[in-house]
């Protein structure tokens, strides 16, 4: 079960190597408990790398609000081709 989820995340990472947009919260929160742990973030290189920055209240976990805020910022930084607002 867990292995299958990890493999799915790996396949998605391969399918989207540019990471132009952050993956949906539900995709990163593999067990669906509403919190992204470091272990879950480890499946996504960019999230893992910026974990401390995303974790604004420094409790070692990413809740949906923290993640969505960061994800929106990633979308703002989308590379050429994206229309600026
Ligand atoms: Ca989780
Ligand atoms: Ca947090």
Secondary-structure map:
Layout: H1 2-15, H2 25-28, E1 35-36, H3 38-41, H4 45-49, H5 51-54, E2 62-63, H6 64-76
Bound molecules: calcium ion (2 copies).
Protein name: EF-hand domain-containing protein
Keywords: Signal
Domain EF-hand: 42-77
The tally of helices reads 6
The class by helix and strand makeup works out as: mainly alpha
What does the oligomeric state look like here? Answer: single chain
- Give the averaged pLDDT, no decimals: 84
Can you tell me the CATH topology? Recoverin, domain 1
For the largest beta-sheet, the strand count, sense and barrel status come to: 2 strands, antiparallel
Low-confidence stretches: none
Distinct bound molecules? calcium ion
What's the architecture in CATH terms? Orthogonal Bundle
Q: What's the arrangement of strands in the largest beta sheet?
A: 1-2
State the helicity in percent bands: 40-55%
CATH class: Mainly Alpha
Number of E-type strands: 2
Our count of domains comes out at 1
Could you give the distance between the termini? 41 Å
Rough shape? globular
Cα-atom radius of gyration: 13 Å
Percentage of residues in strands: under 5%
Keywords: Signal
Signal peptide: 1-20
Domain EF-hand: 42-77
InterPro entries: EF-hand-dom_pair, EF_Hand_1_Ca_BS, EF_hand_dom
């Amino acid at each position: 079960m867990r292995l299958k989820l990890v493999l799915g995340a790996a396949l998605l990472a391969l399918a989207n190597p540019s990471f132009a947009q952050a993956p949906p919260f539900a995709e990163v929160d593999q067990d669906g408990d509403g919190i992204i742990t470091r272990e879950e973030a480890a499946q996504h290189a960019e999230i893992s790398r910026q974990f401390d920055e995303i974790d604004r209240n420094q409790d070692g976990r990413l809740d949906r609000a923290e993640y969505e805020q960061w994800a929106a910022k990633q979308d703002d930084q989308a590379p050429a081709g994206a229309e600026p607002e």
